[in-house]
Q: What sequence folds into this?
């Protein structure tokens, strides 16, 4: 069993309040969860309106498959027009 974990630090240039930030993140997190069947949540920078850290986790029987799933999620986040990816850390355990 392999657990893939990605920590994605995001910049949010558009929101002017925490309420706007949470609307954007809730939408993004829900779409990731439904599309890729992974666990995903905001895990850091909750009180900053222009930054967010999102954690994504998946379980697989092969490291290559877990890495591929996390790659697809990252590509999906990068293609979202409301956020910019600042930093990504991927770990397989």
A:
């Amino acid at each position: 069993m392999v657990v893939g974990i990605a920590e994605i630090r995001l910049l949010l240039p558009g929101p002017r309040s925490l309420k706007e930030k949470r609307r954007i993140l809730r939408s993004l997190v829900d779409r990731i969860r439904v599309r890729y069947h992974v666990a995903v949540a905001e895990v850091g920078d909750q009180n900053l309106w222009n930054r967010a850290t999102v954690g994504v986790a998946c379980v697989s029987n092969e490291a290559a498959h877990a890495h591929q799933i996390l790659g697809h999620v990252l590509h999906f986040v990068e293609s979202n027009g409301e956020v910019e990816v600042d930093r990504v850390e991927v770990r397989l355990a």
The mean pLDDT is 94.
